[in-house]
Amino acid sequence: MGPTLQDLRQRLGRAIPQGKPRKALRDSGLAPSRLELEITEGVLIENVSRAKKTMQSLKSLGILIALDDFGTGYSSLSYVEAFPLDRIKVDRSFVASLGQSERSLAIVHAVIELAHGLGVPVLAEGIETKLQMSLLVEEGCDEMQGYLIGRPQRLAAEGRSKPRVPSLMQSAS
User: What is the greatest pairwise CA distance in the chain?
Assistant: First the structure.
């Protein structure tokens, strides 16, 4: 999975300046398909029509969009249907209870079925036990991340320098 930009709350509520994403991708040399923007449900309710237009513009560049922390905010199934999503991320709060709560398993199952019904893959966050991983595999989860799979690492620890990533978040003039 490519780099991500967290919480686009302010940018999806206002238009991203014309040409900024294209310029940032060109300047960095990053392929658009390697950039995945994570948004939360709260972003979507601020200005639905502008958020949809902005997301469609980003998608036209080849940028991927993931709905992060699904089910913990202002969940509305209309968002899942209306917005051009490439991935739905199940919040770690549901994953943490897998194996202990039938309700969490039912929610995870429903999210996976819903997403797959719409042709959208699902990523579960916060996998810390083999039981959680096993249950998610049984439910058909497409991708997983968490400490069981691998701890976050600093770039310097791997002998790489930090990449230059132009900002998409600069204010419009």
Answer: 51
